[in-house]
Amino acid sequence: MSEDCIFCSIVAGEIPSRTVYEDDDVLAFLDANPLAPGHTLVIPKAHHEHVQDMPSDLAGDVFAVLNRLVEPVESAVDADGSTVAFNNGEVAGQEVPHTHGHIVPRFEDDGSRPIHSIFGDRPNLADDELDDIAASIADGTDD
Ligand code: 5GP
Ligand code: ZN
After folding, report:
1. How far is CA 80 from CA 23, 55, 62, 98, 102, in A?
2. In whole numbers, what is the pLDDT of the chain averaged over residues?
3. Which element (helix H / strand E) includes 43?
4. What pLDDT digit, counting tens, does each position of 17-68 carry?
5. Above 90 in pLDDT, residue 142?
6. Which of 54, 73, 115, 139 maximizes the CB count within 10 A of its CB?
7. Which ligand is nearest to the CA of 45?
8. Kind and range of the H or E run holding 73
């Protein structure tokens, strides 16, 4: 548990939440300031700031709960789909520094846009730059 972390306080039961799923390692609850009815957050109970800070088994547990909850979340509010996403890092808009996946129900004609719409101009990358980036990422996956 991290002091001054809102989500750690929710895990500890010090701040109430509308819990929709809980197991030993993962908690899911309604967002207090929802972007749509049914907006749900899925968090590891242990404090990890970023997605990549979680051990891979815990990351798998969090994703499994996201996977399990999408259908009941959409059904509960009769949604037509959902945006499932992580703001990862302050620069990406992460406000609570305890990693959390969002399930935001989507509706026909809800006026909201796809994840692509949060980005501005697209970079114009040459083939050799793309090759270098791909190689660098591939190298980084080696343990
Ligand atoms: P972020 O911008 O970090 O990806 O999203 C943080 C989310 O947490 C926001 O959607 C915000 O409404 C939600 N949130 C912040 N504080 C609380 C809280 O105390 N309880 C609940 N249930 N949600 C919260
Ligand atoms: Zn925390």
Report:
1. 28, 33, 23, 29, 16
2. 97
3. strand 40-44
4. 999 999 999 999 999 999 999 999 999 999 999 999 999 999 999 999 999 9
5. no
6. 73
7. 2
8. helix 56-76
Q: How many beta carbons lie within 10 A of that of residue 121, not counting itself?
A: 5
Q: Is 1 a residue whose pLDDT tops 90?
A: no
CA 34 to ligand 2 centroid distance, Å: 20
Q: What H or E segment, with its residue span, contains residue 21?
A: strand 19-22
Of 49, 45, 27, nearest in space to 98 by CA? 49
- Mind listing the domains of the chain with CATH numbers? 6-140 (3.30.428.10)
Q: What is the pTM of this model?
A: 0.96
Using a 10 angstrom Cβ sphere, with 0-12 exposed, 13-18 middle and 19 or more buried, the burial of residue 91 is: exposed
Picking from 13, 10, 71, 83, the residue whose alpha carbon sits closest to that of residue 43 is 10
Q: Is 100 labeled as catalytic in the residue annotation? A: yes
Asked if residue 94 has its Cβ within 6 Å of ligand 1, the reply is yes
Give the number of whichever ligand sits closest to the CA of residue 31.
1
